[in-house]
Amino acid sequence: MKNIPIMKPYFDEDEAKEAAAALASGWVAQGPRVAEFEKAVAAYEGNAYGVAVSSCTAALHLGMIALGFGSGDDVLVPSYTFVATANAVEYTGATAVPVEVDIRTYTIDVGWAEKFIQSRYAEKEGRWINRKSGNRLAGIIPVNEFGLCADIPAVNALAKRYGLKVFEDSACALGAKIGETHEGCFGNPSAVSFHPRKSITTGEGGMILTSDIELMEHVRKLRSQS
Ligand SMILES: *Cc1c(COP(=O)(O)O)cnc(C)c1O
Questions:
Q1: Tens-place pLDDT, residues 75-106
Q2: Residue of the CA atom closest to atom 2 of ligand 1
Q3: CA-to-CA distance for 12 and 121, rounded, in angstroms?
Q4: How far is the CA of 193 from the centre of ligand 1 (A)?
Q5: What is the CA(152)–ligand 1 centre distance, in A?
């Protein structure tokens, strides 16, 4: 039987040299090289700030806390994704609510999501309330899959109509773009992964990308305590 490895990271002498230099410098936790890496990734994607954390799951979790998701909130997530998307929602106390994906792209089906909202939620004083649970609809997490952006302009338009916060799960989509606009540059924060299964790797790792200074400062504070 032929085995196809799920990941095959590529390293050469350069990575070995840089790892040795980090060990020799004594900076084996947060330090100047992490700050340099944050700047480089943010600049490549077109964001003002990057906040590096231990995984994309941590990036999603801290970003969602900073966005204010919590108990009594419903957050829409695509039914086709890695489970970390939904888990991060649930870690905040909010409820992850799965919605369909478009089978041409495997990313969130915005038309389906809108019909779902209309059938399951009722408007009350400008908020959309789950008819069954009483939870309020608070956010939507489009997943940019396999280097492909979800239809983020359509997600943003939906979010505007229903008062939702948007956070892009871009774990597998570093460098994905629509036209010249990179993931995470449509006015929403995003989270990328550096797990060896993704575009580039640091071993384990993740990053929150944003141009919102308050969000950046909030996740920076949360990072140093979690
Ligand atoms: C891999 C992945 C994550 C989690 O990334 P980690 O860095 O392993 O925590 C989250 N969301 C999606 C869509 C992923 O593919």
A1: 999 999 999 999 999 999 999 999 999 999 99
A2: 171
A3: 53
A4: 6
A5: 19
